[in-house]
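Entry:
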Amino acid sequence: MSDLSKLKISEARDALKKGEVTSVELTQACLTEIEKADALGAFVHKTPELALEMAKAADANKSGGDLNGIPLGIKDLFCTKGVASQAASGILEGFKPEYESTVTTQLFADGAVMLGKLNMDEFAMGSSNETSVYGNAVNPWKREADDAQLTPGGSSGGSASAVAADLCLGATGTDTGGSIRQPAAFVGITGIKPTYGRVSRWGVVAFASSLDQAGPMTKDVRDAAIMLKVMSGHDPKDSTSAGLAVPDFEAALTGDIRGKTIGIPKEYRMDGMPEEISKLWEDGTAMLKDAGAVIKDITLPHTKYALPAYYVIAPAEASSNLARYDGVRFGRRAKLEAGDGITEMYEKTRAEGFGNEVKRRVMIGTYVLSAGFYDAYYNRARKVRALIKRDFENVFADGVDAILTPATPSSAFELGAMKDADPVQMYLNDVFTVTTNLAGLPGIAVPAGLDKNGLPLGLQLIGRPWEEGDLLNTAYALEQSVQFVAKPNRWW
């Protein structure tokens, strides 16, 4: 069997069970591709020896789960025992945890193989994977007209790039404001953010604790369902983890959505929306209607306040979470000079260890939490968040099963394009995705077409809380209609 790294998880699982291929062969194929792909900047800590050891164990294990022997990439935000876990930040240089995150524990218990750690924006703060201490991750897609390097999106840019380039069969990602769905859309793969609390956050380096949620990034919807089942489940170590049974998400993929009601929110029709995005949305709506769904215009009136509310709440939580990195309790300590006291140590450690975007968000967060501004900003943003959540509750109570929107306001842009722009321009990349994080809802991005430059475009489906199976099935029906099979040209 040739081109093993190009297999989907479902295809590799079946081939492994039939004895047509071994995990060692699959893993070696991926490791070979990873070595050829340094230009993508996707893998930042390679673990070939560990990967082959895990693959051999998987081949010897005849009672493993659906991911037994499947080579995966792990976002650098997940703590992995004995393997560098830096969250792409200089302040965590040299950190090798003595423990395993719950997500990776469950993946490895099922038999999955870790190929290495994947690039990301520093502490998951970014939409283009340009804030990483390792350097940029690069999109494997290029425009037909030129050779410019493009962003794979962020913060899970390394995960997106690795899956799209067939360096691994799937990858873990995290989503605080769209960091699974936006990069998935930019590289033409599938990414799902489950309901807040479905997947444990224990052992995942925190950005904004009330928003962060881990999920899979895969080559199609079926693979997302397979991987999500293994990643999900109640974890007593995480106080926000839901004590709910985990359904068989793959079994829900019938493709039958007859009678399902799909909401189309008028507030997502933004001024200046590119015609290509608008047409993609219309085409996706028509496909779901042809598949038997009922299309319903809906209103989510507080959507226009989502982005400003998010960019108050997320930095506020980040400033609190990142306070621990002081060079005493956590984080690499800066070199001090004679006479330096504890204040100088804090200042130098954080100045050297944090990048500019992290510093910006910590400063914003500290400001909105400070005396005199707490009520004016943070408390008001929390109230807006409650209204946004209520908007969704009202729509779902009115019979809507899922909501269809664009995933991103554009296709992938050039690396460096936003470098000198107002930071708010970068934040606008999250305009279609932050509402689901604020409301704690599941959302999935599915590739739905190419733009005029031959770059992927994605659509987003938002589902009812805890009904990821139904959401995945709707996404599966859309995927079957779209039949997206395009792949990036291998320039790297």
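The mean pLDDT is 95.
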